[in-house]
Amino acid sequence: MQMKVMAFSARPDERAFFEHWSQTLDIALTYQPEGLSMKNVNMTKGFDGVSCVGTCNLSAPVLEALAENGVRYVALRTIGFDNVDLQAAARLGIRVSHAGYSPYSVANYTVMLMLMCIRKVGYIMFRSHTADYSLGAAGAARGMEMQNLTVGVIGTGRIGKAVIENLSGFGCRIIAYDPYPSANLTNVEYVSLDQLYAHADVITLHTFLDDSTRHMINAQAIDKMKAGVVIINCARGALIDTGALIDGIESGRIGAVGVDCFEGEDDVIRVDHSYNSRVTNHDYIILKSFQNTIVTPHMAFFTDQAVFDMVQCSLESLRRFYDGETVPLEVCA
Asked: Is 265 noted as a catalytic residue in this protein?
């Protein structure tokens, strides 16, 4: 039986993948370019499920409206699901899934940001734009080499493991922290979080966001880090206290920062990932102003393979839900 699905925040670049999988899975698909919210949730009446992204509002009131409209299934096209009130979904009988996709999309981007930071590419490009091709005052453009560094990886799930795999070819020392260490990882040494802070020249975040990890990188954590530490975040913006990060940059405690996400990014970036003309996030403006920071607008995931995987995972999970299969929260590898 054909299933009716509304895809929210549907971008033009996803269209070919949506059409392929909707035909393959016998899904009648309706595209909605805007994100799901209380303003447009009434449009879902008569639909069996919705496909959403991390910027969609899936709070209890929206979920209650979905349930009233007969929507029984919600499938995210993202790994993160902190925008979903899972307790409300369970109470309402709405089944929820999130998407697995190529971990190398974010892992490759992470290593790119590391290399850009340790080789001071932001500073070099700024100088080249002013036709200054010198090495900088007192060799300010001088970088570091990866094999001489210790890289600390926080979170060794699928993306963290892919980062470690990528880094293994550089000859650097790799240390990691995860409450649930992986038994089959090589070329890495698990340490406590405080040990990671104390020994890592570069710290990269690949963990989930909840109350236990929110602002895990704060003033106290930064004080425990090596002077000149490089911090990379391609996970969730709220893992870092942005005010403390800025203080650390200004004091020189932090040597460089490369982030693809930041607190309050929804105030800065539209659903289509273009810059909002009325930027109101003050910390974002400050963070971008430093020559030793690289700030990108949540693009690390954005590869052809990852987008294909996200759409497949979202629609396939909805189809399985509809067909009565028992599916875990994440249904695609």
From this structure: yes
